[in-house]
Amino acid sequence: MTDFTPTRAAGDALMAEFIPRMGRRYANGRNTDHGPGAQKAVSVLSPYIRRRLVLEQDAVAAALAAHGPEDAEKFVQEVIWRGYFKGWLERRPQVWASYRSGLNADLAALDRDRRMRRDVDRAMTGQTGLECFDAWATELVDTGYLHNHARMWFASIWIFTLGLPWRLGADFFYRHLLDGDAASNTLGWRWVAGLHTRGKPYPADAQNIATFTAGRFTPRRSDLAEVTQGLEATEPDGLPSVQPLRSLNAPLPGQPTALLITDEDCRVEDFNLAALDIRSVATLIASHLRSPLPLSDLVSDFEAGALADAILRVGAEPMQLQAGDPAALAKWATAAGATQIATPYITQGPLRDWLDEAAPSLALAGITLCEWRRDWDAAIWPHATAGFFKVKQNIPRILEQVLRA
Ligand SMILES: Cc1cc2nc3c(=O)[nH]c(=O)nc-3n(C[C@H](O)[C@H](O)[C@H](O)COP(=O)(O)OP(=O)(O)OC[C@H]3O[C@@H](n4cnc5c(N)ncnc54)[C@H](O)[C@@H]3O)c2cc1C
Questions:
Q1: Do residues 71 and 368 make contact, with C-beta atoms less than 8 angstroms apart?
Q2: For a disulfide at 240, which of 94, 254, 299, 357, Cβ 3.0-4.6 Å?
């Protein structure tokens, strides 16, 4: 089993070990899923990258330095997919809002539809009788990780073979994935369903599964639905319009400041903390906001460990907040004598929703929420308005902008 220790040092070590495999070996082998604890061709860095215990730009710079632009191209592109999805959701926040309301409706419908509830329960507990699917459901729950190809097959079978609501599958992933991320997960599911690249659903194919699981699974063709169309008819209005990027308040030097660390970005030491008059530092436990249903213990343990590691690195007294009553944020900052809260940028997702709920009490207390946006995000997001191709075309410019900074 892969040992996911939730620290920056463990992420750095994992990355260093993978550098020799970021070139051609990655490009040629990355589609093969070798199974739990046996991934050789992919990095398994996602729980670290998700929380910025490892930075995308460091992974990309290491790949380029070791292998050169041609051989590292595929790895670099995959890392940039994450930034693309994050930027895409920033620019279409309506898609996140409709996922949340649609999920609530799907969960409510389960209370009325006993057959659907039974089918969903069987899918989540690995009891459908389809060997590969059942093994991936178990692997996800037991390890908190699935290979990218397994995520695609699983989502496709969930939607098209089992005919289950896609948001319930996305929620199952989100509650269990150590790397669970509002953008990559929601948009990954939407992509498989044919809602992202509209009209192009991803069909799980029996031969493809046999080949890319190195023969571990050999489903019959007849086990899997033939996918002739995606779910685009369920969203007849198409994609919502692209919004401008949200404007933000930068932390002001010299102001009494409360420093907030969340698992959106656990490397606050990268920012200019010395310029701030820091009165209090707190970590915020928030992963339970991912879903109305209970979160996997693996995810909450990883989050708690990552936050503990983050606060150690800034050398502050551990102080822990829990994202419950949103008014608690203003109370903490006020008690510390702060007039601003500084935190790395919080992207679209459950934590952003919670901070939006906290906004009135912060305003009432005269506290400004200030965010740092990383150069990496600022370089990718302006291009994340349509398909990945637009970002891909701009990769040389993005890298120029970020790696020289
Ligand atoms: C249905 C579905 C749900 C997904 N949910 C998530 C999620 O919640 N969180 C998440 O981080 N990724 C998600 N992904 C994307 C991808 O599967 C994982 O990022 C990848 O499998 C992580 O494994 P790795 O670190 O070994 O990847 P590697 O292949 O080693 O890639 C290196 C890094 O690049 C990024 N990356 C690679 N592929 C993708 C991709 N397709 N999309 C976005 N980023 C990518 C990740 O940060 C990854 O750690 C999802 C994909 C699908 C199809």
A1: no
A2: 94
Whether the predicted model's global pTM rises above the 0.85 cut: yes
199 and 79 in one domain? no
- Asked if residue 199 and residue 101 are part of one domain, the reply reads yes
Q: Are 166 and 193 in contact (CB under 8 A)?
A: yes
CB–CB of 341/260 below 8 Å? yes
User: Do 230 and 333 reside in the same domain of the chain?
Assistant: no
Q: Are residues 81 and 120 in the same domain?
A: no
Q: Is the CB of 184 under 6 A from ligand 1?
A: yes
Relative to the CA of 43, which ligand 1 atom is closest? 30
Same domain (yes/no): 198, 265: no
Q: How confident is the model over 240-263, as pLDDT tens digits?
A: 999 999 999 999 999 999 999 999
- Give the residue, by CA position, lying nearest to ligand 1 atom 2: 188
Q: Is residue 387 part of a domain?
A: yes
Q: How many domains does the chain have?
A: 3
CB-ligand 1 contact for 186 (6 Å cutoff)? no
In this prediction, residues 280-308 reach a mean pLDDT of: 98
| CATH number of 305's domain | 3.40.50.620
Instruction: Provide the pLDDT for residue 318.
Output: 81
Instruction: Please tell me the distance from the alpha carbon of residue 69 to that of residue 73, in angstroms, as a whole number.
Output: 6
Ligand 1 mutation target, pool 2, 74, 179, 298, most atoms within 8 A of CB:
179
CB distance 79 to ligand 1 below 6 Å: yes
Q: Ligand 1 mean position to 396 CA, how many Å?
A: 22
Average model confidence (pLDDT) across the chain: 97
Residue nearest (by alpha carbon) to ligand 1 atom 46: 46
Judge if 78 and 203 occupy the same domain: no
Contact indicator for 99, 186 with CB cutoff of 8 Å? yes
- Asked if residue 67 and residue 43 are part of one domain, the reply reads yes
DSSP 198-252: TT-PPPP-HHHHHHHTTTS----GGGS------SGGG-TT-SPPPPPPPP-PPPP
> Which ligand 1 atom is nearest residue 56's CA?
47
192 Cβ below 6 A of ligand 1: yes
Residue-wise pLDDT tens digits, 146-186: 999 999 999 999 999 999 999 999 999 999 999 999 999 99
